[in-house]
Amino acid sequence: MSNWDNDPKVAESVCEAAEKFGFFQLVNHGVPLEVLDGVKDAPIVSLGCQQRRRGSTPKSFPLPTTSESQVLCTKLMTALMEKLNVKEIDETKESLLMGSKRINLNYYPRCPNPQLTVGVGRHSDVSSLTFLLQDEIGGLYVRVNEGKGEEDGWVHVPPIEGSLVINVGDALQILSNGRYKSVEHCVIASGSKNRISIPIFVNPKPNDVIGPLPELIAAGEKPKYKNILYSDYVKHFFRKAHDGKKTVAFAEISS
Ligand SMILES: O=C(O)CCC(=O)C(=O)O
Ligand SMILES: [Fe+2]
């Protein structure tokens, strides 16, 4: 990614990955590694580890985002919007695409029989984009080829040192009228090692109304989703279990 500015293929690959897979890993992303390590080593993380009980649900802690991650986020959003022929990220779009952020801390205690514990159940994120820092343990699985019979399955996202895992969330799927995919993923705990992951969720503002972007509808696309208050969408997500049932169905226009 370091040659983002002089190689248009980088932006193209990002858009292609967001359309086809909804997930990709970035290296040379410009977010200094010390920032990632700093977050992983923060005292609150160790405290969290001691307080966690085996098998209990991961907990959220507010942690600051960095200016480097903001620059990266703006670059990605700009490229993703250009691909949709949305030329300018004005104030309204900035709010819809990246108006609020939340950082979580997920701690997965090792479990001798991972099949018997809940890491994170199948879900898609409600964000527009999620940036995930994961340690070297692994355990994140992403759904591929959904609905394609025998090819439908789960692929492990291997930890790559210094990389960021980035995925499209439901809000961006809705705003892009289904062009960018928010795919299901889940986490299986390790049988032998504790794992930490830190997702940064980049979201619309709670009071934003999300729906297919006006530029797409003006270009003749039929809207696949209704306009919906983002905070209502998030409420719906937290009301239901992580059972693989799609939150995005809540916003779909039935045909
Ligand atoms: O821990 C991970 O790798 C992913 C966690 C996740 O999907 C989430 O917090 O939404
Ligand atoms: Fe997630």
Features:
binds 2-oxoglutaric acid, binds fe (ii) ion, Jelly Rolls, 6-stranded antiparallel sheet, globular, 255 residues, 8 helices, 4-stranded antiparallel sheet
Notes on the structure:
This protein is of the alpha+beta class and 255 residues long. The chain has one domain (8-168, 181-204): Sandwich (Jelly Rolls). 30% of the residues lie in helices and 20% in strands. It is built from 8 helices and 12 strands. It has helices spanning 8-20, 33-41, 43-51, 67-83, 91-98, 170-175, 214-218, 230-239; strands at residues 23-26, 100-103, 106-108, 120-123, 129-134, 140-144, 153-156, 164-168, 185-187, 195-203, 209-210, 228-229. Strands 1, 2, 3, 5, 8 and 10 form a 6-stranded antiparallel sheet that branches. Helix 1 (8-20) crosses helix 4 (67-83). The longest helix has 17 residues, at 67-83. It is globular, with a radius of gyration of 18 Å. Mean pLDDT is 86; it is low at 46-62.
